[in-house]
Amino acid sequence: MSRQAIQEYVYQHYRGMYREAGQGLPFPFFAPGSHQYADQLWDWDSWLTNVAIRQALRDQGDADELEKARTYERGCILNWLSVAKKSHARGWIPFVMNRDSGDVPVDIYADNMHKPCLAQHAAFLVREDDGAIDWLREDLMYLQYFVNNYRNHHRHACGLYFWQNGLGIGVDDDPCTVDRPPRSSGSIYLNCLMYRELLAMVYLLECAGLDECAVSYRDDATALRTAIQAYCWDERDGFFYSVDLNLDPVPAGVWKLHSGRPRTWPCLIQRIGTWSGFLALWAEIATPDQAERVVSGHYRNPDSFRAPYGVRTLSKQEKMYEVVASGNPSCWRGPIWGVSNYLVLRGLEKYGFDADALTLAEQTVDLLGQDIERTGAMHEYYQPENGEPVLNRGFQSWNMLAINLIARLEGRTVVVEY
């Protein structure tokens, strides 16, 4: 019954997430689809919501409906790039856009911008449409400006990328980032997204016939993977962690106390177990041996991440673990989120942990299907032990990826992110 409830719900409601152009949003777009976010464009929400909508369109096989949806899909990308086009933006794009969105801020590096998933969203659309890129070709350089903003202004000397601060990071109250000094969080979540973003940029440039332009992005992706392996992998624990970049600079040529043996490490690992450590599998950064240790030692551990309804967003063994109703910031210190279950599952699949992925798919479908059956809607996040909804009835967004999981469980063609 859970599968049927989800399918009926998604097929009935996904068109309700379409929004028309107007004011500060010059192109049609997708809204996450709840009362709180009823008329806004959000960064990683629009990307992963689009993956679910494409599954719904594939399931129904309606060519006219697909053609209509393309206007809203592409409009999400073009809305973001409309900001990057402004002469003083220098690639800056906000993580949320409203009808009354203001101009580009004076200090574009004071806060975080759009998460590095915009090229991935565009690459997904191009790939799903068999390489069709003409709709994006004229604006492709502005997408490069965006990615280059990260490369030039969000990258530490050790090669890892950092958040400017704790605002708008997606995983709102991640203790590795929130309430920490500016530019100090070498978040594993951010760096895994950035690795895939660089590869997506390579794909788009090659589709556009700009192979030479793609070389530096490919090289940077390789360098970032090396940095993640060097600084985020913990051989002791067998897990990927965020790192602390907030260290005093090493003095050069100036004598002071203890300067006779300068520090040789550029960052310190943060041994805080967040679900984002599993993203190294989703991003395909982990080696097969590392993936085995991550899964056997952490994913399958009921005292840590594994719960009856999926993956806790913070290890239950952490002192900061809690499951509370909180809207600003949302709670990522323990609850089950549909998006984290989905991305962890995709990582399991990529490394051949098919039985684990199948079980997680079934549990996620049961979680969201039971919610629809009981309340007539989905919620933003859930209790790990009993699957009870915690907050925000009517939230849709990436929860609609449940229909992608149903297709997987039923052996049908599955739409996946780039």
The structural class is mainly alpha
Radius of gyration: 21 Å
Distance between the terminal alpha carbons, to the nearest Å?
30 Å
Order of helices and strands: HEEEHHEHHHEHHEEEEHHEEHHEEH
Mean residue pLDDT: 95
| Arrangement of strands in the largest sheet | 5-8-9
Report low-confidence residues grouped into runs of 5 or more. Answer: none
Main pleated-sheet profile: 3 strands, antiparallel
Determine the number of helices (DSSP H or I, runs of at least 4 residues).
13
Helix percentage: 40-55%
Count all strands and give the number.
Answer: 13
Coarse morphology: globular
Q: What is the percentage of strand-forming residues?
A: 5-15%
Description:
The chain has 418 residues and is mainly α. Helix content is 43%, strand content 6%. It contains 13 helices and 13 strands. A three-stranded antiparallel sheet has the order 5-8-9. It has a two-stranded antiparallel ribbon with strand order 1-2. Strands 3-4 form a two-stranded antiparallel ribbon. The model has no long low-confidence stretch (mean pLDDT 95).
